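Pilot study result, target chain (277 residues):
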Amino acid sequence: MKKLVLLLLAFGMAVSAFARGSNDDTAAFEKLKKSGKVRIGVFTDKAPFGYVDANGVYQGYDVYFARRIAKDLFGDENAVEFVPVEAASRVEYLQSNKVDIILANFTVTPERSQVVDFAKPYMKVALGIVSPDSALITDISQLEGKTLIVDKGTTAELYFTKNHPNITLLAFDQNTEALNALKDGRGNALAHDNTFVFAWAIQNPGFSVGIDSIGSLDTIAPAVQKGNTALLNWLNNEIEHVLEADFFHKAYKATLEPVYGNKVDPESVVVENGVVK
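Predicted structure:
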């Protein structure tokens, strides 16, 4: 009987904690809606996905989506506070409640899913390698004993650390620092999302993407604080049901096509309504 009582008490405490967490979660979402502004973490130096233009205005594919989120939450696409983040700080900014949502080209991985909650995806991505035309890297074996530039906290750093320990990694906090290191010859190549290196190579003559896809095809999705179910559910409903069926193709046309031109197939990048095809 004593064991039964203890089990019932434990069950009651678990149910109470779950209900309290659910109520707290709902209250936090209601507080967000009443605040009149959503805080969204984006990059400032990763054109054409998230960057600040010459006039100090946030632009890019992620920013296009962020403004729509603000519009559907508050009826005003300007009801968003853009918070600059680095790749390595994205998780910390969610955990410390510095942002409500991360829209900074955040690739979904099992490790990250342990510490943040990802909504439905809106992009497809793999890793790519860009290098100087004068010493173009076309196969990973060419990097053995050489230096590969990466950004800290990215899937590129994780992939090469795990799978290619014989390649020396030179890691930076910011995209700008990493790209300058490539230009300065401090590394033989740079690994990043292929969607990003495609765009950068197009805009920087003398460099090309010699390896356009490494590892598995991954997805990019909005992320929220772990356990923030109310906001997560809102985002999933937004992606699956509220946004028009071609919303992200419109975003692509407005922000990525001017850079890619006809060199990239939109279908290799865009995910509509959270369904990967």
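One observation from the pilot: The domain at 125-218 is CATH 3.40.190.10 (D-Maltodextrin-Binding Protein; domain 2). A full batch analysis is planned for the follow-on phase.
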